[in-house]
Amino acid sequence: MTSSVIANIPSLWREMSGGRSELPSLQNDRDTDVVIVGGGYTGLAAAHRLIERGVATVVLEANRIGWGASGRNGGVVSAKVRQSFPAIAAQHGLETARSVHRLCHTAVDELEALIEALGLTQAGFQRCGNLRCAHHERAFKSIADEAEWLQRALGDGDQRVLSAEAVHDETGSRAFFGGVLSEGVGTLLPLAYVEGLAEVLVKRHGLALFEQTPATGIRRTDGGVSVITPGGEVRARQVILATNAYSGQTEAGERIRTRLVPFRSSIIATEPLAPAVQQRLLVNNRSYGETRRMMRWFRKVDGRFLFGGRGAFGKHDSRVAFDALQRSMISLFPDLANVKVAYRWSGHVGMTLDALPHVGRFDDRMVFAAGYNGAGVSLSNYMGRLAADFSLGDSPDVSLFGASNFRRVPCYPLREFGIRLTAGWYQLLDAMGR
Ligand SMILES: Cc1cc2nc3c(=O)[nH]c(=O)nc-3n(C[C@H](O)[C@H](O)[C@H](O)COP(=O)(O)OP(=O)(O)OC[C@H]3O[C@@H](n4cnc5c(N)ncnc54)[C@H](O)[C@@H]3O)c2cc1C
């Protein structure tokens, strides 16, 4: 690796990571068994699995490692998908809900196992739990019922219902009507994790990983594929597309791009909190989320308060959107009224039509994993691993996450309009407490 300046988006994570050396870009043609396009959690987890199975692998990353969602996210490690498990059971039956639930929990276990096996202590992984805070009495009843259902129908003993008073004692906010604590999940430091993973795979396992190497096209060849980049082509038997919500960068990502709706998700991080405020807010240092459809989440890192949320924030960051996030934070936590915001950043999450992630084959030479709907820290790692298995000809059981359910977005050019309409509708329902 040669040393260089960091060409990556500014964020608290970037500041905390302190920078790292740059990896080379591809400068010649290469032959390998599997080529992976995209060097986020999905792509690197796939690479790790292939190395474990003794398969020659090349990873191509268009930007720097951690440039995509894997270096920008909130670091909330969850064991869920956007659809609730009771809703999945109602639509697809109890056995299917059970298998999706199992996949989500396996994803957290696999993430922890990977971090431990590779000694990635810099990732700061902790099973500190997540507290879901109800923004309305009706929402409280609904999450309490869901917790009871999870215990009864799926044997999930990780959930604990907390009263409004208990949620106030823990969060320091009077805005909530109660909450549900999920104990088995946790948090990590997103960029430190993805950078650490890349470094171990390159330095310890000899992974051929190229930064600033966009795949500009993919062609079928006799018995394989050829992935074209500005500096050379990579010939392989199989290609794994791991470009998720950033699939629009070149036409190589087309088959994922047309199946996802990218939604902007934004984060603000305050200046370090005064000791008295520090001791009042989020005292158990978990991750926290709200029940609103346009969900806000929060956690403390490095003595600062982080507050994030999804919204119809358009193609680019805007000060107006970040200011709205700050107002929302202050309305929940009036203690933060005079605390300055030090960092603002955002990124794209990839939403799917069925609100579920997908992994599998596009054809006999192309495998993919994508569409985590904003809950991909643990799932992208697990599904990257499963994508590697698919690329070697295996057919792991992935329940509803299979390729046949990964449908194209109809009327794709109208998606921006659709996002705004949906977000506006959700905001209205949230405001009405529905
Ligand atoms: C602001 C934000 C907050 C989030 N918070 C959370 C959270 O708290 N918890 C949670 O579970 N999930 C969260 N997510 C979602 C989570 O970060 C993602 O699901 C996960 O990181 C997806 O990983 P990935 O590797 O599939 O995609 P990415 O990390 O986006 O990686 C895709 C990579 O592909 C590269 N690429 C694209 N096209 C090409 C090409 N043609 N050639 C080569 N490379 C290419 C891109 O440069 C990019 O680096 C959040 C996302 C965002 C944006």
UniProtKB/TrEMBL annotation:
Keywords recorded for this protein, A-Z = Oxidoreductase
Q: Which Pfam families match?
A: DAO (PF01266)
Q: Does the keyword Oxidoreductase apply?
A: yes
In this chain the FAD dependent oxidoreductase domain maps to 33-389
Q: Does the keyword Oxidoreductase apply?
A: yes
Any transmembrane segments, and where? none
Name it: FAD-dependent oxidoreductase
| Organism expressing this protein natively | Salinicola acroporae
